[in-house]
Amino acid sequence: MTVVQPLPELLESLRAHGLRKGLPGPMPEPISGPRAIPTGHPGLDAALRSGGWPRGSLALLDAPAGSGATTLALGSLAACQAAGGLVAYLDAAGNLDPSTAARLGINLDWLLVVRPADVAEAVELAGWLARERRIDAMVLDLAGGVPAHALERLANLLVRSDGVTLLLTGMAGAGRGAAGVRVALRRRAWLAVGRDLVGQRVEATVERHRWALAGGRAELDLFFAEGRRVDALLRAEARPVAEDHAEERPALRVVSA
């Protein structure tokens, strides 16, 4: 993707729609070469059979509440940033917690946060960003239903762009028809260190892929955003616990949606 420098027009337009932070300092080098955006999980990159989220796609994270969809989406934005990409979060649902995003590895100084007035404006802004071709990855977080034709129009715009949009919805089945990629997330176990819950083990199934063979599966360990400095310890010590035997402790509340 070729990023046009500078971005004053983009930032001014986004500020009019609720941008919380500008982009200070020099612009990072854009992602070049690969035709996919990393998910942040090598196992899922392999399961997608496209090396990550395919550019030009609307990708639905289809998951019950509390199954890690938001955690996975934020991790993908962090991985995109680490590769030099520009990212955005369209927060129509009001779910984004900046401190959680930072603990999951996102550089908030380079995160464009937009709070649309409603679902219709969120989809419209996502389409505008797709046409501008200046954002590598964005999350479209919707609280309620959205007309199927609006998402289909967005999907068609994305096909002609170089970016990927990760769709989070609060309604079962929303977006399934329009999404070119659909990944279902189902929690298989909690992850615990002693009696403390520190994350969850989730099975990700690629149920649809417009550009590759569907059916791939990956097991993801999604840790709660309690501080990246202890991730190495958590990964070494965490053990799966059956859901009916897990007693969640308040100090380690679930922060994924």
Please explain how this structure is put together:
This protein has a domain at 8-183: P-loop containing nucleotide triphosphate hydrolases (Rossmann fold, 3-Layer(aba) Sandwich). Helix content is 26%, strand content 26%. It has helices at 8-15, 42-48, 69-82, 98-103, 119-132, 148-159, 231-237, and strands at 36-37, 53-54, 57-62, 87-91, 111-114, 137-142, 164-169, 181-193, 196-209, 217-223, 239-241. Strand 6, helix 6 and strand 7 form a beta-alpha-beta unit. The chain starts with 7 loop residues before the first helix and ends in a 16-residue tail after the last strand.
Question: Can you describe this structure in just a few lines?
Answer:
The protein has helices at residues 8-15, 42-48, 69-82, 98-103, 119-132, 148-159, 231-237, and strands spanning 36-37, 53-54, 57-62, 87-91, 111-114, 137-142, 164-169, 181-193, 196-209, 217-223, 239-241.
What structural class do helix, strand and pairing data support?
alpha/beta
- What CATH architecture of the domain at 8-183 would you give? 3-Layer(aba) Sandwich
Shape: globular
Unreliable spans are 1-6, 21-25, 248-257
- Helix coverage percent: 25-40%
Determine the CATH superfamily of the domain at 8-183. P-loop containing nucleotide triphosphate hydrolases
Strand content: 25-35%
The Rg value, from CA coordinates, equals 18 Å
Overall pLDDT, averaged? 82
CATH topology grouping of the domain at 8-183? Rossmann fold
Distance between the termini: 30 Å
Give me the count of strands. Answer: 11
What would CATH call the class of the domain at 8-183? Alpha Beta
Number of helices: 7
What about the largest sheet? 9 strands, mixed
